[in-house]
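[step 3/7] fold_predict: job queued, chain A
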Amino acid sequence: MEISVELIKELREKTGAGISDCKKALTDSGGNLEESVMLIREKGLATAAKKASRVASEGLVEAYIHLNGRIGTLVEVNCETDFVAKTDEFRALAHDIALHVTGANPQYFRREDVPADIVEKEKEILGIQAKNEGHSPEKLEKIAEERLKKFFSEICLLEQPFIRDPSKTVADLIAEAVARIGENVVIKRFTRYQLGEK
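[step 4/7] structure written:
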C-alpha cells in the first residue's frame, strides 16, 4: 500500500514522531490514522519504560503564575543531559507540566503516594454510595474499585488527564516526550501555591 506524504505529515503533527516512524506505523496499520497513533504511542511507552531506569539529574525548575498572581506553581523536571534541558521542546514540556499543576491542583504524585487511611476511607465512602444506589452486594466491591480509579485520576498528577489534551494522562505526556527526546524525563517534585490558602 502506498502511504501519502499528506498522511505521514498529519500523523507527524499529531504525534511528534519522526517521519520514518510515522511511515512504518501507517504501513503496519494499513493507512489507518487512529491505529497508527496508537502504534506510535505504544512504541513510545515501550521506549520510555526502557529509559526509566536511567539517571535524570539535569533539567530545570519551571514557574507558572496564573490569575494575576493569585495561583503559582514551581515544578522540577529532570532529564539526563544539560543539552536536552536547554532545548525548546524540553522547556515547553516543563511549562506544560507547571501549567497543568496550576490548573488541575494534584495532591499527590502517584497513587502509591496517597496515604492508606485516605484510600480506605474513600473506598468505604464509595462502597456506601454504591449501596445507596441499590447495587447488589456482590457488585459493591467492583463498583467501589472502579470509582476509586476515578478518585486517583483526580488527585494524582501522573494519572490526571492532561489539561491541554484530556485524551492522554500526564504519564502519557511524559512517555511521549521520552520517545521524542531520547532521554529519560522525570517530574521530580512540584509545589502549588494559592493566595489565602492555609
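[step 5/7] annotate
The first strand starts at residue 58 and ends at 66.
The two ends are 61 Å apart (CA to CA).
exit 0
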